[in-house]
Specification:
This protein has 7 helices and 5 strands, in the order E-H-E-H-E-H-E-H-H-E-H-H. It is of the alpha/beta class. The chain has one domain: 3-Layer(aba) Sandwich (Rossmann fold), CATH 3.40.50.620.
Length: 230
């Protein structure tokens, strides 16, 4: 057991940790709420795979345990993050953008659920956001509610009445609100990588949707953005 981890698994939480701003603030909020943070990072061979290194840095500060789970979604493709499709740099148009990874949050939450049930933990945290985001269907409150219902139908723990809770504390926040929460939590924004095609040194392109949303959020919050650009 890692130093500082609670012996009470009911007060442990699986936190999906991507290495980005939102997931770091989500982990900080879970820790503030008194949970032992068990961080789960999925290395899905994403284009911006350098974010896995960012997740390691964040977990060293905020998590009691960190698992990096390999899952090569390039075998499926279907996204600018996992296939041979250009990342848009001119803003997002109508509909769901090509940076959407098919069923990603459903897959990732399912893995978090499996780890939680194996450990006896009952809380999952995910840093999805339904305001300043790119229109992904698996970032909506309806999705979170539906997945929580599924978790309590499809598991031994759920059937036996113990129950799981899926926390999405950022879901109704703007990106500026998330930056302000991070400032309040005193997290290190420089540890994070948001860009969809950051280089091997973690330097951002400055043009993709993730870069645009991040820059706008920091500007609106009046907080300096430590992002390094290529």
């Amino acid at each position: 057991m890692a130093p500082g981890m609670s012996n009470d698994l009911n007060k442990s939480a699986i936190v999906l940790l991507s290495g980005g701003l939102d997931s770091m603030v989500c982990a900080g909020l879970a820790r503030e709420a008194g949970y032992s943070v068990l961080a789960l990072t999925i290395d899905y061979h994403q284009r911006h795979r350098v974010e896995v290194e960012a997740a390691k840095r964040i977990a060293a500060d905020l998590a009691d345990r960190h698992i990096i789970l390999p899952l090569d979604l390039t075998a499926f493709g279907g996204s600018a993050l996992t296939g041979d499709i250009d990342v848009p740099k001119q803003g997002v148009g109508e509909g769901i953008p090509v940076t959407y990874v098919p069923a990603r949050n459903t897959v990732f939450l399912s893995l978090a659920l499996a780890w939680a049930e194996a450990l006896g933990a009952r809380d999952l945290f995910v840093g999805v956001n339904a305001l300043d985001f790119s229109g992904y269907p698996d970032c909506r409150p309806e999705f979170i509610a539906a997945f929580e219902a599924l978790a309590n139908l499809a598991t031994k723990a759920g059937v036996e009445g113990v129950g799981f809770r899926v926390h999405a504390p950022l879901i109704h926040m703007s990106k500026a609100d998330i930056v302000r929460e991070g400032l309040r939590l005193n997290v290190d924004f420089a540890q994070t990588v948001s860009c969809y095609q950051a280089d091997h040194d973690g330097r951002a392109c400055g043009h993709c949707d993730a870069c645009r949303l991040r820059a706008e959020g920091f500007a609106a919050a009046g907080v300096p953005d430590p992002t390094r650009y290529a």
